[in-house]
Design goal:
Layout lengths: L6 E10 L2 E10 L1 H23 L3 E6 L4 E4 L20 H17 L3 E9 L5 E12 L5 E10 L1 H22 L6 E3 L5 E4 L5
Antiparallel strand pairs: 1-2, 3-4, 3-7, 5-6, 6-7, 8-9
Length: 196
């Protein structure tokens, strides 16, 4: 039909009736090339997505080495092949190892565990971390995939709200005049000392 196809050509030289001859085998690999191209496009799409998600994404192999991570993961230049002991202090690395071991060896899943840490500049941060086992085609666990969302702004906001609520409660409690806080169903939640 005149269309171009991808082919694989292999040749073998041999002796045929005292003469040097060459056998040429041509194999149509168009389908294989199309599958590889589709896979490559999917990987590009996945890598683009991973690199632009505003969360830290990382992969550990069965030896607890970082084999993949996006740019937000600790903002280190090169973590490839490093373990947590080469990146974090011993106490934190030991803690992560215990958790990672449960994921890699037991298939345990971590869902949105909140943790407090320190960033590279020494600032307190809070993260929500999830980890899932990564499996090969046969279902064998080959490592883990982790994602960590920086929730520092939300935590600071929650703490500010709690502090304001505490100040408000104390202001009501120690008010010199009668004051009360009611629940949504009109029950008394708190009375000021002015009632006493």
């Amino acid at each position: 039909n005149g269309s171009l196809k991808a082919v694989e050509i292999s040749t073998t030289t041999f002796n045929y009736e005292g003469e040097t001859a060459e056998m040429v085998i041509v194999k149509d690999i168009s389908e294989q090339v199309a599958i590889e191209k589709e896979r490559e496009e999917e990987l590009i799409l996945l890598k683009t997505l991973i690199d632009h998600i505003p969360s830290s994404i990382f992969v550990l192999d069965k030896k607890y080495r970082k084999t993949y991570f996006n740019d937000l993961h600790l903002s280190y230049n090169d973590l490839s092949g490093k373990t947590n002991w080469e990146v974090y202090n011993k106490e934190l690395a030991d803690y992560y190892y215990i958790e990672d071991k449960k994921v890699i060896e037991d298939g345990y899943t971590v869902n949105n565990r909140e943790t407090q840490g320190i960033d590279l500049n020494g600032n307190k941060i809070w993260e929500s971390i999830s980890k899932i086992p990564m499996k090969d085609k046969t279902g064998e666990i080959i490592g883990l995939l982790g994602i960590a969302h920086n929730i520092t702004k939300n935590k600071l906001y929650e703490m500010e709200i709690k502090e304001n609520e505490d100040r408000f409660r104390k202001a009501i409690l120690y008010a010199p005049i009668p004051m009360a806080i009611f629940t949504c169903d009109n029950k008394i939640h708190q009375l000021s000392e002015g009632w006493i």
